[in-house]
Amino acid sequence: MVPSGYHDFFLAEAGASAALIGLLFVAVSVASDRVVGKGAEIVEQARASSALTALIIPLALSLVALLPGARLGIPAVIVSFAGLLFVAATLRRYLSVDKSNRENPRGLVGLFGFSVVVALIFAYGIVGIVNPGSPAVVLAIAPATIACVLLGVDRAWALIGGHGRGRGTALIDLVRGEDPGSR
């Protein structure tokens, strides 16, 4: 069962995730030809779907956590399994296109980080199924959902501009003193 002390956290996270998903839909609709149109590049499609996936996971888990007497085990396994399927499908699609249409492999770092966070949610979901009363489930899943929101925002930023890249790459450019517009 989700401790009552987490009610405000999950309420805020549900609201934030829902708002960010709404903003993501606006961003995608403004640039729909570039992101989801027939000529959309795989990189743009992957950014949009990764941002959406990263934001849906905390939204779903937060909404479930707000239900009276809720347990996060089964919902965590379901949404994280879907997230891991997304990662596998994205990697498959990434590897299936010509190298000229692929993003720099450094762009896969975010996907790897996302898969680690989702795998953590999956593992603690199983713990929650096996040991429903374990406080470790919420203690691990809550910060993991924060990481999902942050990764979703990073992917959304890369989608709408940021020279097509996430904040991590821009930070590396800043440290190196490189001009991000030169790529």
Summarize the model shown.
This protein is an all-alpha fold and 183 residues long. The protein has helices spanning 7-30, 32-35, 42-65, 73-96, 108-130, 136-160, 167-176. It has seven helices and no strands.
Structure description:
73% of the residues lie in helices and 0% in strands. It contains 7 helices and no strands. The chain has one domain (4-182). With 183 residues, the protein is mostly helical. The longest helix has 25 residues, at 136-160.
Fold blueprint:
Layout: H1 7-30, H2 32-35, H3 42-65, H4 73-96, H5 108-130, H6 136-160, H7 167-176
SSE ordering: HHHHHHH
Q: End-to-end distance, in Å?
A: 50 Å
Radius of gyration based on Cα positions: 17 Å
Low-confidence stretches: none
Number of strands: 0
* Overall average residue pLDDT: 85
Helix-residue proportion: over 70%
Shape: elongated
Beta fraction of the residues? Answer: under 5%
Alpha-beta content class: mainly alpha
Give a quick account of the main beta sheet: strands, pairing sense, barrel closure.
none
Q: Tally the helices: what do you get?
A: 7
| Total number of domains | 1
